[in-house]
Amino acid sequence: MSKNTTICRCSDISKEEIRELISQGYTTLEEIKRISRAGMGPCQGRTCGQLILREISSITGKKMGELENFNNRPPAIGIKISDIVKGAEENGKNC
Questions:
Q1: What is the pTM assigned to this prediction?
Q2: Do 39 and 70 touch, CB atoms closer than 8 A?
Q3: Which residues pair with 14 in a beta bridge?
Q4: Residue 56, C-beta contacts closer than 8 angstroms, at least 6 positions apart
Q5: Any residues with CB less than 8 A from the CB of 7 and at least 6 apart, and which?
Q6: Which of 19, 47, 55, 71 is spaced 20 to 30 A from 1 at the CA atom?
Q7: Strand partners, 6
Q8: pLDDT at 81
Q9: Nearest-5° angle of CA 12, CA 16, CA 18?
């Protein structure tokens, strides 16, 4: 994998950029996410998370199992207000 390889396709972040952040002291996935927005796109880190962890592991010498993964959130999709109301009504809640 070359240094110009894109690690996070959603935010267009390269392997070189990730390595630079790690060399600056950002050595957790959450830190890299907050400083670069890697893992905040539509895939929510499902594509880039393991690749970033591998880079952290390779540079810091920590084992992959010692590193924490992203706090994954479901991808954002549109939802109709009527579906929300219907779901609330089915659960006995007023909107």
A1: 0.70
A2: yes
A3: 6
A4: 22, 27, 28, 29, 32, 62, 67
A5: 13, 14, 15, 17, 18, 38, 48, 51, 52, 55
A6: 71
A7: 14
A8: 86
A9: 70
Question: CB atoms < 10 A from the CB of 19, how many?
Answer: 16
Write down the architecture of domain 6-90 according to CATH.
Orthogonal Bundle (1.10)
The percent of residues in the chain predicted with pLDDT above 90, rounded, is 53
Residue pLDDT, tens place only, 33-91: 999 999 988 888 888 999 999 999 999 999 988 998 876 566 567 788 888 888 877 87
- Residue 66's nearest CA partner among 51, 55, 48, 53 is 53
Task: Give the bridge partners for 13, in sequence order.
Answer: 8
Taking the domains of the chain in order of start, what are their residue ranges? Answer: 6-90
